[in-house]
Amino acid sequence: MIIEVKIPPLGESILSGVLAKWHVKTGDTVKKDQPLFELETDKITSEGVAESAGVITLKVATGAEVKIGELVATLDTASGGTTSVSSAAVAAPKGTTSVSSPAAAASPAVRRLAADTGIDPASVAGTGKAGRVTKGDMLAAAVTPKEIAAAIASAPAAAVPDSAPVVTAQPAGKRSRAKMSKLRQTIAKRLVSAQHEAAMLTTFNEVDMSAVMALRAKYQDDFVKKNGVKLGFMSFFTKAVVHALKEVPTINAQLDGDEVVQNHYYDISMAVSTEKGLVVPVVRDCDQLDMAGIEKAIGEVAKKARDNKLGLPDFEGGCFTITNGGVFGSMLSTPIINAPQSAILGLHAINERPMAVNGQVVIRPMMYLALSYDHRLVDGKEAVTFLLKIKQAIEDPTRLLLSV
Known about the structure:
Strand 14 (272-274) and strand 15 form a beta hairpin. The strands form five sheets. The chain has a six-stranded mixed beta sheet with strand order 10-19-18-17-13-16. Strands 7-2-4-5-9 form a five-stranded antiparallel beta sheet, with no helix packed on it. The protein has a four-stranded antiparallel beta sheet with strand order 1-8-6-3. The longest helix is centred in the middle third of the chain and has 18 residues, at 210-227. The N and C termini lie far apart (68 Å). The chain has helices spanning 77-80, 108-117, 135-142, 145-154, 182-197, 210-227, 233-247, 291-306, 380-395, 398-402; strands at 2-6, 16-22, 29-30, 35-40, 45-49, 54-58, 65-67, 71-76, 89-90, 200-208, 253-256, 259-262, 268-270, 272-274, 277-279, 282-283, 320-324, 343-357, 360-374. Helix 7 crosses helix 8. Residues 81-103 and 151-164 have low confidence and may be disordered. By secondary structure, the chain is an alpha+beta fold.
């Protein structure tokens, strides 16, 4: 039985994607739930898995842009050893499909060429009916790069007009080109849009990390033993952000045309760096989570991001964003607002610096904080007050317990 594998709907706003990578090739026998390909959209990367066993024939090349509903492969279930098949599933958000092709018996000409050239017909993309490998396919596959070079060298040189510009070829290996990924294209558009549309301004402060570092050192072992996760800096800053949002609610609002939309919940977006770019999944209801709950939630979304398992719901509804460039050694930066949010907090590296404390010069672990905000909605006084509330909560964490 031949099954058509098509790109299924991934969400109302997703109309197409790029078939970024095939994990199989034409002629492979795939197993049920085996990963087949990666589909990259402007929002997420999804992994397509086979919902049944069969022999696969690819219909779309790696790097091709595909639309929702487009055929990308066929699956011959009779050759795969299992007869029940449905199109294929995507493992991140629901979505992509499984692929395959009939493993039809090769013709005598194809078998002779396979014996002469040593080329496995299963490794050749078939252009015949139902994906069959033809004699022409085998001949084309048998042409070596050396033979191509010899043919080019023996061909007559084309006449070049006297007015043609002289182009100096770059030595091999000096440059390479690759199409920008859908995700990177979207990141670029959103960042440029945020800078063009918002009246973005950044204010700075610095925070003494001594108190938080002392608490972590004192209670880390007990915290891990009880909760199974480490007590990190992000849970402190997340709690401090929630506290500051309650004190300065304008930061927890956003513009929608000529209307101000006030948020009365505290879903915090966490910037996570992956191999394919920066993603900003959301940790829900941070005001209702304790420190352990926040650490676990951050760990879960970070793992999903690295494994390309994030779905559209993971990005929706964030009120405010925290980004931590300090993990890469950044000393200071001006983060760009994650639209349509009104502000973003940038954390940076912790460095020991001489500080004046009670008339004495002492060495303290210091971090620079940066708050970028939309000046159309947020005034400078509110931005500075918000950042000061965070500084106070980090330097004296008991404030978080007392909500002062």
